[in-house]
What we know:
This protein is of the alpha/beta class. It has a domain at about 1-160. About 50% of the residues lie in helices and about 15% in strands. The protein has helices spanning about 1-15, 15-25, 85-105, 160-165, 170-180, 185-195, 200-215, 220-265, 270-275, 280-290; strands at about 35-40, 55-65, 70-75, 115-120, 150-155. Strands 1-2-3-4-5 form a five-stranded mixed β-sheet. The chain is flat, with a radius of gyration of 27 Å. The protein starts with a helix and ends in a 5-residue tail after the last helix. The mean pLDDT is about 80.
Amino acid sequence: xxxxxDRGYKWLFSNKEIFRELITSFVxxxxxxxxxxxxxxxxxxxxxxxxxxxxxxxxMYKVKLRERDFYIVVLLEFKSAPAPFVAVQVLGYILDFYxxxxxAEKELRKLPPVFPIMLYNGEKPWTTTLDISAxxxxxxxxxxxxxxxxxxxxxxxxxxxxxLLKIGNIVSxxxxxxxxxxxxxxxxxxxxxxxxxxxxxxxxxxxNWLKQMAIYERIDExxxxxxxxxxxxxxEVNMLENAIREEKRKIxxxxxxxxxxxxxxxxxxxxxxxxxTGLSEEQIQELQKELKIFHN
Length: 296
């Protein structure tokens, strides 16, 4: 089961659209609305030190927040139940990242903000605190000098089915499949995803995740085959619809070209032909060459 989660989740959330959905749908922080996902960049090479590589798998993205570099790291927790000192491990991860930056960038004067997310899909309830102060006995005695650090939790089973259906994107459907699995509901959601999601590769990645779930016997193989059929049928319909739209566009273009040819043969100016047909100057010049007309 672990191999499925490790590889599959990293593959899924390496897709920028799926990552964007995770942040915008499940991180309820004020600054999220100011993130510029158009410049979203997956930091190459997983940054997990040897101390944590057996505990976490990670993905780190660099985005712009109010024109400044901002890092979001998604730490994937694969244990069936969380360890008691996860907050210490996550803090150590971030400190290792900062040490890496300091060593790599000699001109660095200030460290960029890093927002840590702990994504947990285990079956057992999450009972571990992600607030490091709660792990330190007598923390309040130190006052201003006490250590403060929290990690943002995304705990899959904590989201009700109704909320996930309302969100209706790839990430919420992923959570739905893992926590509230129902074949009929998921089939409808898959079809809706195809209609709503522009990034078809992201939908394809989700379908592949369902395939992995079938391979590892987390869902019935016959269910996956039906999901695959729905996906491919919708793909074929979409291709047909696109072909029809393209053919209609060509017919409209040809109709405008015919009007332009008539106007050119009647000695109308290029500017007038542009005005009446909406064709570009380059398109009209091509028609002039075709008709062997060389006037303005």
